[in-house]
Design goal:
Helix 6 packs across helix 10. Helix 2 links the parallel strand 2 and strand 3. The longest helix is centred in the last third of the chain and has 18 residues. The protein is built from twelve helices and 13 strands.
């Protein structure tokens, strides 16, 4: 099928000053759809070229309002002062305007089968789009919004197949605890899990954290390029998966899990995360900052041992349901069902 893919982000490394967390899996997913026989057209602005100077037009097709069999949107929502301002206003981003144009042209006017991938759980449960017969909403969540389909965060097959638990366990890891990611809606989890532990173990927080006054003892190092994410995790023994409550309540797991694990950095998962047994072994569940310190100290004692390698292997095994090829198969089914049921005008 010809799939129009809407994303406000990059396929390549992009620029440092962006919260585009989907770069960990966006390009592999698009390549996976292409390998499965679909033709993918990128229908948002070519930010790789416009902002990062990376010309991918020889590998991917961009732009316009082409004829499509399916429209797939990485869902964008109003961000006051950014995408809600008039075009041309300083600081304006046009993702929301373009998404509205795509929805009006394809989803509403043409009846084009449309997949909304609600990566941040920002589409209201009562949004009228959910009721349209030509729309399917996909979410990372194990327990998605009624009517939505679970499409797990895709782990690239090649990266998962290449991960070697023994080699990862053998790496020297000078940092005990790390978090790579931005602050958005994570203050409560940070207060409960990371900040208390940071008083007792070597640590680093990389990402956009503009409000840090309440944690003067924590080492914040600012945003880092995409290429450094794996390197930071390879130097670190463990991370805490800090997730907003709207993620915890439904088992919505992000790419932070596999970004850390593929580098051998073991994920500590808060106990309130629903369905956590699907993602980490029980020994890596934590209830508070004291638990985090205890688990880190246990990992320090086992670092480099066969037990350490076995624990990494157990975690990698739990990534299997998230394998990209399995998620492409889910999308294939969604596309087929939508195109068979959706009325076209």
């Amino acid at each position: 099928m010809r799939v129009g893919y809407s994303c406000w982000g990059f396929l390549g490394p992009g620029v440092v000053d962006t919260p585009d967390g989907s770069r960990a899996y966006r390009r592999p997913l698009i390549d996976g759809l292409t390998a499965a026989g679909h033709e993918v057209v990128l229908v948002q602005r070519n930010r790789d070229l416009a902002e990062a100077g990376l010309d991918l037009r020889g590998q991917y097709t961009f732009g316009g309002l082409p004829d499509l069999d399916v429209l797939m949107l990485e869902w964008r929502w109003p961000l006051p002062g950014r995408n809600t301002t008039p075009c041309g206003t300083p600081g304006h981003t046009c993702d929301l305007h373009r998404q509205t144009e795509l929805l009006e042209h394809y989803t509403r006017a043409c009846g084009t089968p449309t997949v909304i991938w609600d990566l941040d759980r920002q589409l209201p449960a009562d949004d009228p789009l959910r009721a349209l017969p030509n729309v399917t909403v996909c979410e990372f969540a194990l327990h998605p919004t009624p009517g939505a389909t679970t499409l797990l965060c895709p782990v690239p097959d090649t990266a998962l197949d290449a991960a070697d638990p023994a080699a990862l366990a053998a790496l020297t890891r000078p940092l005990s605890l790390v978090y790579v990611g931005n602050q958005y809606d994570r203050d409560d989890a940070f207060d409960r899990y990371f900040a208390p532990a940071a008083r007792h173990v070597g640590h680093r927080v990389a990402g956009k954290w503009p409000r840090t006054e309440r944690w003067p003892h924590v080492t914040f190092t600012g945003r880092c390029p995409l290429a450094e994410v794996a390197a930071i995790h390879r130097q670190s023994l463990a991370t805490v998966l800090l997730l907003p409550e709207r993620y915890n309540a439904v088992g919505h797991m992000t790419s932070r899990l596999f970004e850390a694990l593929l580098a051998g950095c073991l994920p500590l998962l808060p106990a309130e995360f629903v369905g956590g047994e699907a993602f980490v072994p029980p020994v890596l569940r934590v209830s508070d900052g004291a638990d985090v310190v205890q688990r880190v100290e246990q990992l320090q004692r086992m670092a480099g041992t066969t037990e350490h390698a076995d624990l990494i292997a157990a975690c990698l095994g739990l990534l299997e349901p998230m394998r990209l090829s399995r998620q492409v198969a889910v999308l294939d089914d969604v596309f087929t069902t939508l195109t068979s049921l959706s009325p076209r005008r």
